Amino acid sequence: QVQLVESGGGLVQPGGSLRLSCAISVNIFSINAMGWYRQAPGKQRELVATITSGGVTNYADFVKGRFTISRDNAKNTVYLQMNSLKPEDTAVYYCAARPRGKLTYDYWGQGTQVTVSS
Predict the structure, then answer these.
(1) pLDDT digit string (tens) for 61-90?
(2) Dist CA 68 CA 63 (whole Å)
């Protein structure tokens, strides 16, 4: 069973930074891609950023230039560096994994709350 554990959420002021971490319980090379999603109250879950096993990244327009997704293969961990945070970034952030041979993100973490407020 694949497990993902997020950490690093919290309360930050507008303009501040946070780094989220997602540790995966299997060898990260067995995963085709990893992603970060978020869900704000009353809204649908939305894609934030993804990174493939080859290191190719993709970002939602609303985080381009502010967020950076990266991976540490030795630690089986994916990160989301979030800079210049805005109140509208407030949401529960989820880590997800897409297994090799699959087109969907089948494994999800429990989520970590990010609150941007003064």
Answers:
(1) 999 999 999 999 889 999 999 999 999 999
(2) 9
